[in-house]
Amino acid sequence: MKFFSTLVASTLGALLAFGIAFFVFVLFIVALASMSETTPTVQQNSVLVLDLAGTIPERGSADPISRAITGELSYGTADVLRALDMAAVDDRIRGVWIQASSSSTSWSTLEEIRKALEDFRASGKPIIASSNGTPISENEYFLMSAADSVFGLPDAPFEFNGFYLNAEFYKGALDKLNVEPQIVRAGRFKSAVEPYLRKDLSPENEEQLSLLLETRFDGFVEAVADRRNLDVGRVRSLLNGTQVFVTNEALAAGLLDGLAYEDEMVARLKSVTGIDEAAELRTVAMSDYAMLSPSAAGIRRNSANEIAVLYAEGTIVNGQSEQGISVGPESIRRQVDRILDRESVKAVVLRINSPGGSVTASDEMLRDLRRLAEEKPIIASMGSVAASGGYWIAMAADTIVADPATVTGSIGVFSLFFNVGGLFSDKLGINFDVVRTGPTADMMSGVRSLTADERAAWQRRVDDTYDRFISLVAQNRGMTPEQVDELASGRVWSGKDALERQLVDELGGLDDAIAIAASTVGLEEGDYVVRAYPGQMTFLERLSSRMEAGVSIRMPTPKRLTQLEQVALERTRQIEELLRDTASIQARLPVTIRIN
N or C: which end of the chain has fewer CB within 10 A? Predict the structure, then answer.
């Protein structure tokens, strides 16, 4: 018997060792391949290609191993903005070719890139947009419409029917499982807990989401009408009707300039950029061009002065950050100390792309950011979402800059945990009994409901946190607590509506925030360089960080997922985070607000 147990153990050990060795071997091969990566060469008379496939993330991956394993892009939003700025003055670049292909990039990112394209167009170089035959949706068309001319394949799908927002609810599933959500909240608009209490939208939640949807719709209509020289009413009519479903109909409606196959697009690009018809069309991908420094395009910058861009991206959690997924006070504190130690840093842009999270973690980060603000001015730049805890940490900034489509506000708090006693007893036949030293000792056991006194005590704690949040905003925004409360109660606002209500100071993207930061300390364009904090981690550093933190190792998320895959992944992460943070006070959005 001992022989067989020893044999099995030896076999399993050998298999495990082989698996680890194979994994290390693969990483070694990828690492060797990455060492052969060279700085891209841009030839004269080239066209810069902006591929819209998948998701353009907040930050790209600088690690070739991560890119090889997960398909992450090498560039992010800031890289695209910088690359278009470089291309405008680079004599080697003759124009930009936008290639639309199933984009799932966030709307605020699309708005930032669209503005950069408009700035590029001012250089006099042409922009042409086309599709490879995948459906052109409002997301792709929003960027394509910034071009001088827009083309599609004949008889290809063209989605031009407006926007919608899906909100999912879990109450039915919880009822079937006999799981009781224990919820305490502050703010009538704090929709964070609605998915666990209702099967549909409350009137308050429907009101705020409708306003977000209308803001997106109006911005899209105005942008398309302006670039296509169409009447706003005409664009609205097309979006609300059934006239446009294929590219041929889009051409007839004035939304396209022509129908063309790829070889015809190549010929047209040569024509508009002045490249000889017999010559080869030279293209350079955004992934390659974004790797170049501004000096390669002839842009000179004074490296003695630095504008630091401090990223706060992901759900706010206690402890350390996980790159692109969560942000924690320990990691922010390290970066704050690094920035304070660098005399060359003259100002800081706090780039927030977070739905919020832990109140205590948010407050810890605010404390360190205020410590930084005592030495260097901070300008907050809001990305796709800067709500709840994301708005909390923005209170360290001298100026808040939001994109018109940013989801912000949500000034409210809640606490959520589940009573699973019914699930165990009714569904699994497992019962619980308890011996305790006091009547409230087991209130967080998760196998019984809160008593009235326990709920009242928990409500007081949540209300106190909400009042503190209100006071914090009132102090920073120069408002009374009563004025803030009118705008708060957990309600979300678009950046455009937040500006009208004095919750933010300016509308704009990351580039605008950097320009404001430079101006604050008397620096002009060319007088400074921009450096990101923290630097991008390699794949192995990510794994090491996760193991040091004592948490499960999670592979980096591929950036070119389908929209359905992205939604499923986001929902899984949200539920995982809610279960992990059970019984803590949260300042966060409940679900991703995804407008389609």
Answer: N
- Boundary residue ending a domain (278, 297, 316): 297
Residue 362 is a catalytic residue: no
In a domain, 184, yes or no: no
Contact indicator for 86, 116 with CB cutoff of 8 Å = no
The sign of the CA dihedral 171, 174, 180, 184 is negative
Of 61, 362, 388, 494, catalytic: 388
Residues 321 and 293 in one domain: no
Residue from 106, 131, 137, 190 carrying the catalytic annotation: 190
Q: How distant is the alpha carbon of residue 407 from its chain centre?
A: 11
Is position 116 within any domain? yes
Number of folded domains in the chain?
2
Cα–Cα dist 86/277, whole Å: 26
Model-wide pTM > 0.85:
yes
**Same domain for 399 and 264?**
no
Each residue's pLDDT tens digit in the chain (596 positions)?
454 455 445 655 655 555 555 555 555 554 544 444 567 789 999 999 999 888 888 988 766 665 555 556 778 999 999 999 999 999 999 999 999 888 888 999 999 999 999 999 999 999 999 998 888 999 999 999 999 999 999 999 999 999 998 888 889 999 999 999 988 888 666 666 888 889 998 888 888 899 999 999 999 999 999 999 999 999 999 999 888 899 999 999 999 999 999 999 999 999 999 999 999 999 999 999 999 989 888 888 888 999 999 999 999 999 999 888 899 999 999 999 999 999 999 999 999 999 999 999 999 999 999 999 999 999 999 999 999 999 999 999 999 999 999 999 999 998 888 899 999 999 899 999 999 998 988 888 889 999 999 999 999 999 999 999 999 999 999 999 999 999 998 899 999 999 999 999 999 999 999 999 999 999 998 999 999 999 866 555 555 555 554 444 444 455 555 556 666 666 666 666 656 666 678 888 755 677 77
Both tokens of 246, joined, read: 């294929």
Helix (H) or strand (E) run with residue 264 in it: helix 262-273
Q: Would you say residue 277 lies in a domain? A: yes
Residue 106 bears catalytic tag: no
Q: Are residues 390 and 427 in the same domain?
A: yes
The CATH number of the domain where 250 resides is what?
Answer: 3.90.226.10
Q: How far is CA 367 from CA 323, 330, 374, 525, 569, in A?
A: 21, 12, 11, 31, 32
Same domain, 288 and 341: no
Residue whose entry in the numeric block shows the structure tokens 């810890």: 364
Is residue 85 domain-resident?
A: yes
Domain shared by 506 and 563, yes or no? yes
Residue 560 sits in which domain range?
A: 306-432+442-448+488-588
Sheet arrangement for strand 413-419: 180-186, 413-419, 585-588, 356-358, 315-316, 326-327
Domain co-membership, 384 together with 293: no
